[in-house]
Design brief:
- The chain is built from five helices and no strands.
- It is mainly α and about 150 residues long.
Length: about 150
């Protein structure tokens, strides 16, 4: 094993966790999500690896929020700690969520804003991103329709 590398909890690997979060052991997540790793670092690849673990970073009620239920108690969530760089960029924006800004200088940031902006309702990841702030998502959607 590499010396000086912090290893996050192995969770339920090689199986998915109790709430469906897949094992991340074979993904090279530490290098892919490192913006300073010139060989492997990639925002796009990090985002792809991290997508199934977005539910780990919030606490929306899993019974009332069918669009973005939290899975933060899943034993495999700890493996996705390196995803913070992607989650930060998706939350570091001015204005409504449809004006997300993921562009930045450097080779790591390889996703254009055109790919993430606009109406993405119906896309599983973006539904989670937009609605994870709410416990009772039905009331939010109903108010939005009226």
């Amino acid at each position: 094993p590499e010396q000086g590398i912090y290893r996050y909890d192995k969770g339920n690997c090689p199986a998915s966790g109790s709430e469906g979060v897949p094992c991340a052991q074979e993904t090279n997540i530490r290098k892919v999500c490192n913006r300073y790793d010139e060989e492997f670092g990639s925002f796009r690849e990090c985002w792809n690896i991290c997508r199934p673990a977005f539910c780990c970073i919030h606490d929306a009620d899993p019974d009332l929020n069918y669009l973005s239920p939290s899975c933060s108690q899943d034993e495999n969530c700890a493996q996705y700690a390196y995803c913070y760089i992607v989650w930060f960029k998706f939350h570091d924006t001015f204005g409504p969520a449809t004006f997300i800004n993921v562009e930045q200088r450097g080779n790591f940031f390889d996703v254009d804003n055109d790919e993430v902006r606009g109406n993405k309702i119906g896309d599983e990841f973006f539904d989670q991103l937009y609605f994870h702030h709410f416990n009772d998502v039905r009331s939010v959607i109903e108010k939005g329709r009226n």
